[in-house]
Automatic annotation (TrEMBL):
Segment forming the signal sequence: none
Residue ranges occupied by any HTH araC/xylS-type domain in the UniProt entry: 192-294
Keywords per UniProt: DNA-binding, Transcription, Transcription regulation
PROSITE patterns: HTH_ARAC_FAMILY_1 (PS00041), HTH_ARAC_FAMILY_2 (PS01124)
Entry annotated with the keyword DNA-binding: yes
PANTHER family according to UniProt: ARAC-FAMILY TRANSCRIPTIONAL REGULATOR (PTHR43280), HTH-TYPE TRANSCRIPTIONAL REGULATOR EXSA (PTHR43280:SF2)
Coiled coil: none
Stated name of the protein: AraC family transcriptional regulator
InterPro entries noted in UniProt: Cupin_2, Homeodomain-like_sf, HTH-like, HTH_AraC, HTH_AraC-typ_CS, RmlC-like_jellyroll, Tscrpt_reg_AraC-type_HTH
Length: 302
């Protein structure tokens, strides 16, 4: 008997910004702010206080802190000496992962819990990438900052370990996430059912001219109610969700067809190729032409 075990096709983008190791002196403070990406903070040494939505969170050596996009927070070094850490901001366009990550506003994973996962192993691997790069690169002129230049092998390794770290964070959130949005404070069964109905309509109409106002009308909601309920359950607006669906479809077309950028933009319902390119760059960090494999670029754009 012949048997093929086939994995699903995957076309996904990981965005990483502000990924760095830092050492800050006593009494150091980073004022209240927020980011448009998810954030992970690992306390290497020392002690820091995080003020998140008015709540005080104490971080000690070995602790990890996850924060959802848009959460306002500030950091204060509470150590007598230095506070050293690893910090990164990230986003990915996989909807299921985003739903899982958006279950909690923030979560502290103490050292005893983090040590029971593979997080210590992965952060050691990232530290090793940093040390190897520092050994082979000359120091720049800045006293307080040193920017690394990574080989493509190191870039792949860094992305791989960051994805594995994200996986561990998602697994740590699993017990809470499995309770689902229904059990979050202020969320009703009706709101959850409504959000799921909106999602189904968005998936069916993502590439058509059906508007969010029309979907809201079919569900006997106002546009603002539709947006508020969907955002409450899924952590993003209906429009952002549709954009993610389109970008996922666009990436598939870029790597699997010879369609031109203009043909793809028309198929996905964008006003123009330039509008599509702007949205694609905003969502992925690269242009459609840069994302497309070079062996297809020549054929599609010739």
């Amino acid at each position: 008997m012949n048997l093929d075990i086939i994995f699903p096709d995957i076309t996904s983008t990981l965005q990483i910004t502000g990924c760095h190791f830092g050492v800050k002196p006593a009494k150091w403070n980073y004022p209240k702010h927020h980011h448009h990406l998810y954030e992970l903070l690992y306390c290497q040494d020392g002690e820091a206080e995080q003020i998140i939505n008015g709540n005080s969170i104490r971080m000690q050596t070995g602790d990890w802190l996850f924060m959802k996009a848009g959460v306002r927070h500030q950091t204060d070094n509470r150590s007598e000496n230095h506070f050293s850490f690893f910090n990164m901001h990230f986003d990915l366009d996989n909807h299921e992962m985003r739903m899982r990550l958006s279950t909690l506003e923030y979560a502290l994973y103490p050292k005893v819990l983090a040590d029971s996962t593979k997080l210590p192993l992965y952060i050691q691997e990232i530290e090793q990438i940093m040390h190897n790069c520092m050994l082979h690169q000359t120091h720049n002129t800045s006293v307080t900052e040193r920017r690394l230049s990574l080989t493509y092998e190191d870039k792949l390794a860094l992305q791989s370990f960051i994805l594995l770290i994200i996986r561990e964070i998602i697994l740590l959130q699993k017990p809470e996430a499995e309770e689902s949005a229904l059990f979050r404070p202020g969320t009703t069964m009706h709101e959850a059912d409504t959000a799921h109905a909106i999602e189904e309509q968005l998936q069916l109409s993502a590439l058509s001219e059906v508007s969010i106002s029309q979907i809201a009308s079919e569900l006997n909601l106002s546009r603002s109610q539709c947006t508020k309920i969907f955002n409450k359950i899924y952590g993003i607006s209906p429009r952002q969700y549709v954009t993610q669906l389109k970008l996922t479809r666009a990436k598939h077309l870029l790597v699997s067809t010879n369609w031109t950028i203009e043909e793809i933009s028309i198929a996905l319902g964008f006003n123009s190729a330039s509008h599509f390119s702007r949205q694609f760059r905003q969502g992925t960090g690269v242009s459609p032409a840069q994302f497309r494999p070079k062996h297809r670029m020549g054929k599609a754009e010739s």
